[in-house]
Amino acid sequence: MPYRIRFTRVCQSFLLGIFLHAPVFAYEYSIHRPNFNLENYLDINSVAYDEALEEQWIRADNGLRMTGHSLSQDLLYTSSELKLNNKISDRISVVFNLEHEVFYYDQSLQDPKIEVAYRPLQSDMSLSFISTTDYIKSEVDMGGAVTWGRSTGNFLRLEQITVDPLFNEKNSEPSINDAEYKDFQDQVRLKAAYQWGLFELYIDYVNMSNMSFVFDDKITNYTHSGYTYNSYLKYAISSENTIKLTGHGFKSDVTLSDAVSDQHERLDYGSINIKWITRSFTKERLVFGMRFDEFRNKIVDPLNSSNNLDYSFSATQLYTSYKYSYGMHKAWDFGVYMAEVREPYDETKSPVDINRQSYQSQFRASWIQTSPNNKSSLQFHVSVNLDDLVNDIGDGVGMTYHSIF
Predict the structure, then answer these.
(1) pTM value?
(2) Do 47 and 381 contact (CB within 8 A), yes or no?
(3) What is the pLDDT of residues 73-84, one digit of tens each?
(4) Which one has a higher pLDDT value, 151 or 1?
(5) For 128, which of 8, 117, 204, 282 could close a Cys bridge (C-beta 3.0–4.6 Å)?
């Protein structure tokens, strides 16, 4: 199942790893403290997948991509995804999908999803059965999907997956034998891509119904509901100029209660990014952009006030990047990122720090090798801390690999 249960009583703050691309929620039935650094949003933006590669990935049936970069501390941001689509016949396809991202906390690897799709009468509509793979039957997720169109063109997909639907019936692990779901969570996912004229729209939205889980001690209860989204709108002004607006984020409502605490958490993250991609000034790609990220985490515990938290972290960025090609399928990409950052604070612990601000800036250089058919790309990144060249010049290194096949 994609939601590995750790039956530990961790009464701290809950945090979810968001695949800035992959929106399926992955959470553990516990609560975790956030671990931010002032430069985190710059680090992630500087190694985000190239917009052309991102759109190429959405339209591809088969591919592998991964990226990783230092988070300006002893942690790494990592994201990886594998998707395989094997057409068995004119009507039947088998799809394998694995997604994993680590940002806010060390998240367990999700179980892969297997999908069997059937297209009746060779039409553009397909019906799918979906299941995760797990040795333990009680931790298998199951569902289905209906898709109109194909990923290479305009398409609409509606997917529904139930988390651990067999848990109460098949749970046989001695250490958690008395645990049970009171309410199972249904994840309803809407994906769509549509292009008309000079405009292109992409939407990926997941709504998670309220789930309720009772631990084996019959005292500890966990509930969760929320949603995630990832979308973009692109406008091709001309063959040399494109405007692209992207948005992604999530919302999570969680409770974790036991004999000594009753924590209620509201977790919100949102990001808006607008960029202008142009080749008007040079044959090479030049990007100008502005991005805003905001993360909020509020916990209220009426039984234990020491668990209360009112935490915020936001950044407003201006950035530009320039790609310079040389040789055969080789290129350099240089980027400069500047941000006004509102530092993390806890209003319940230190209200005097609420208005603290800082300014962060970063230079990134990337070396790129592309395959002759332009379907594979390997990139190495190195970042320099422009706001502290004397005491902390190094901002980390990273790597990105992208391939469709």
Answers:
(1) 0.86
(2) yes
(3) 666 778 899 999
(4) 151
(5) 117
